[in-house]
Structure formats: structure tokens, C-alpha cells
Amino acid sequence: MAKNIEVKVYSTPTCPYCHDAKEFLKSIKVRYKDINVREDEKAAKEMVEKSGQSGVPVVEIGGDIIVGFDKEEIEKSLKKHKII
């Protein structure tokens, strides 16, 4: 995994697409930080500022923001940042 490139998943516990995004990252052995925006109000505000969206999931990869579970965009960003 590329050094100092952080992968974050802004999510809620009940969101099926959040679960899918996290399972996909696990399946390709990418470590990520799971941020529960239901419990962390500061993180929820941060997510909205970065994405312009209040819906989850929002995946952040090295500054790239991907709204929703978009497998192709996630893979493209991971490759761009040499994580996979």
C-alpha cells in the first residue's frame, strides 16, 4: 500500500451501500478508516464540506472524493494513488 495515502469511508451502520463499499475494499485487501457520521457530528460536517453531499457512503482516497459505492471510480483512484 502506498505510504501516507489514507483511505476513508464515511458511513452509517445501517447503510447497505456503505457495507458494500467496505466489503469491496476488504476483498482487495485495502485498509481504510471507517468513519461513522451518525455518531461523529464533526466528521459528518467534514464529509459534507468535502463532498457537497449528506448521503453516504463517501469514499476519500488521497483527496479524491467518491460519492456512493462506485466500484469503478474507487478502483481508478486506488490505482492512481498506487494503492492497488
Write up what this structure looks like:
This protein is an alpha+beta fold and 84 residues long. It has one domain: Glutaredoxin. The protein has 3 helices and 4 strands. A 4-stranded mixed beta sheet has the order 2-1-3-4, sandwiched between helices. Strand 1, helix 1 and strand 2 form a beta-alpha-beta unit. The N and C termini lie close together (7 Å).
Brief descriptors of the model:
20% strand; Glutaredoxin; alpha+beta; 84 residues; four-stranded mixed beta sheet; globular; 3 helices
Helices and strands, with pairings:
Blueprint: E1 7-11, H1 16-27, E2 33-36, H2 41-51, E3 58-61, E4 64-67, H3 71-80
Parallel strand pairs: 1-2
Antiparallel strand pairs: 1-3, 3-4
Q: Which range best describes the helical content: under 10%, 10-25%, 25-40%, 40-55%, 55-70% or over 70%? A: 25-40%
Based on CA atoms alone, the radius of gyration comes out at: 12 Å
Mean pLDDT: 95
Give the spatial strand order of the biggest sheet. 2-1-3-4
Structural domain tally: 1
Query: How does CATH name the architecture?
Result: 3-Layer(aba) Sandwich
Enter the CATH topology name.
Glutaredoxin
The number of E-state strands comes to 4
Main structural class: alpha+beta
Number of helices: 3
Beta-strand percent range: 15-25%
| Overall 3D form | globular
Give the N-to-C terminal Cα separation. Answer: 7 Å
H-E string: EHEHEEH
**CATH hierarchy class name:** Alpha Beta
CATH superfamily membership: Glutaredoxin
Spans of at least 5 consecutive residues whose pLDDT stays below 50 are none
Largest sheet: 4 strands, mixed
